[in-house]
Design a protein that fits this description.
elongated, about 180 residues, alpha/beta, 2 helices, single chain
Amino acid sequence: MKRLQRGDTLIEVMLAIVILSMIIVTSITLTGFGIGQTESAVEHSQVRTALNGQGDILEYLRDQYIATGHSGGGPSGTWTTILSMYLNNTAAPTEVDTCNKGQHAFYLKQTVAGNTLSAASISTLIGSATGYAQPGQGIWIDAYRPVIPGGNPKYIDFVIKGCWSPIGNGPQQQEASIVRLYDGN
């Protein structure tokens, strides 16, 4: 055996294993964090879509109320019910970052025939959501018409909220949207 031939010493091999282990642990940790962030983004996106859907149904009901000359059946009747039974006669809250339902909270269920909304009904049975929120399970609407001396304004602020416990661990999540619609009268 020649004296110029050298192998790695035990210390060099152990140092290489430590460095490789640190790289692997860091990679696994970052991957887990990335998956959690992606999961959270998907949940927020799904809830935001559901909130927008509730707002779209409200607009549809109001538009049908106006188009039918305020007649009492179908979507127009649903809008009339919202105006008569589900309004909180106070100004909309300035902060919507709580998961507290208002006194007259409701959500809208839709029936679709083909690509057209054929009916919408009102429900007040609102449960909590595990995983992402959906209408009736963590998503609800609070309607506010501010009381102004000298008469009521012609608009209603609909605060559409979504609150849910994320699929993974973490604090309660929430999304909210405010839709201002003129009442059609």
